[in-house]
Design a protein that fits this description.
Blueprint: E1 2-5, E2 9-15, E3 30-36, H1 38-48, E4 53-60, H2 64-74, E5 82-85, E6 90-96, E7 102-107, E8 129-132, H3 138-151, E9 154-158, H4 167-170, E10 175-179, H5 180-189, H6 198-209, E11 212-216, E12 222-226, E13 229-233, H7 246-259, H8 264-278, H9 291-301
Parallel strand pairs: 1-4, 1-8, 2-6, 4-5, 8-9, 9-10, 10-11
Antiparallel strand pairs: 2-3, 6-7, 11-12, 12-13
Helix pairs in contact: 1-2, 1-7, 5-6, 7-8, 8-9
This protein binds adenosine-5'-diphosphate.
Length: 302
């Protein structure tokens, strides 16, 4: 069982001819209201990949929480531990122009009220996985990690979007996941040499944190360090339509594979396949692949 402790948003995606300049008012040609937030995306990714998933987060009492949670509920994610906050549901306003360039404003809203006290013991047993990102308060995530550690659960932390985090906060975690940009940001914060190769940075990060580390590398696949060994897996070759959500697809499928008892390297393969398949459709949640699709492509890799 996987419990995701993270953000839940509604994304307003405006299609515009050009990104508005300061002081400019534009008419959008289309508007889509889509469920989002990295927590929600990864919970759905894990559920689609076949895992049994609890979502722990918060939405506002503004009716928009139902929009944010609809996809999760349809996929069988347990949303009973999603709290109702007095703050508005987390919202992203996204302008996308004809060239696909975007400009985004995010309001965390209810995500700021998420509390570690929403986790219950049944979510944190020795065979449970706690999954986190970086879109709810750091102090609450640290408390959640502490409780999960004490209960013997496995902890997967996707450090996205990156923010300053102390080395000690990372040391209680089992699996750290970052993309290439986040690895550089984290490396800077931890004093790793900017000139180090990717391989050297990842290895050093694993040594410093005592964690297994996964770095996603877009079309280059992924690199992992686990129990001292380095694994480099090429991406599944695809012709991408929209790479939004690839990282979330990877994270959810990776956790679902661990939950299904797969070894580290195979979990990275699940992530690579899910990440690539998510590039074949537009949107974050709508593009997340299902277990059967992942398995079909995995079989082709072997
Ligand atoms: P993020 O979305 O967080 O920046 P990445 O771009 O690294 O994350 O993508 C996550 C994973 O999705 C990659 O490790 C890879 O497996 C897969 N992926 C992303 N882009 C492509 C691509 N163009 N072709 C094939 N796989 C991709």
């Amino acid at each position: 069982m996987i419990t995701v402790f993270g953000s839940i948003n509604v994304d307003y995606v405006f299609q515009v001819g050009s990104i508005p300049a300061p002081g400019e008012t534009l008419l959008a040609t289309d508007l889509a209201l889509l469920p989002g937030g990295k927590g929600g995306n990864q919970a759905l990714a894990a559920a689609r990949a076949g895992a049994s998933v609890n979502m722990v987060g918060a939405v506002g009492k503004d009716g928009r929480g139902d929009i944010a949670l609809a996809g999760l509920r349809a996929a069988g994610v347990n949303t009973d531990a999603v709290a109702a906050s007095d703050k508005p549901t987390g919202t992203a306003s996204i302008c996308v122009d004809a060239q696909g360039e975007n400009s985004i404003v995010v309001y965390a809203g209810a995500n700021e009220s998420v509390s570690h006290s929403q986790l219950d013991a049944a979510m944190l047993g020795a065979d449970a996985i706690l999954m986190l990102q970086m879109e709810v308060p750091l102090a609450q995530m640290s408390a959640a990690i502490k409780a999960a550690r004490a209960a013997g659960a496995t902890i997967v932390w996707n450090l996205a979007p990156m923010q300053a985090v102390a080395l000690e906060a990372l040391q209680g975690v089992d699996y750290l996941m970052v993309n290439a940009i986040e690895l550089d940001q984290l490396g800077q914060g931890l004093g790793l040499a900017a000139t180090d190769t990717l391989h050297a940075k990842v290895t050093r990060l694993a040594e410093l944190t005592h964690c297994s580390v996964v770095v996603t590398l877009g079309a280059e696949g992924s690199l992992g360090v686990h129990e001292g060994g380095v694994i480099n897996l090429p991406a599944l070759p695809v012709a991408p339509v929209d790479t939004v959500g690839a990282g979330d697809a990877f994270a959810g499928a990776f956790a679902a594979a661990l939950d299904a008892g797969q070894p580290f390297e195979q979990a990275m393969r699940w992530g690579n396949v899910a990440g690539a398949l998510a590039c074949l459709k537009t949107g974050a949640q709508s593009s997340l692949p299902r277990r059967q699709d992942i398995e079909e492509h995995l079989a082709k890799l072997l």
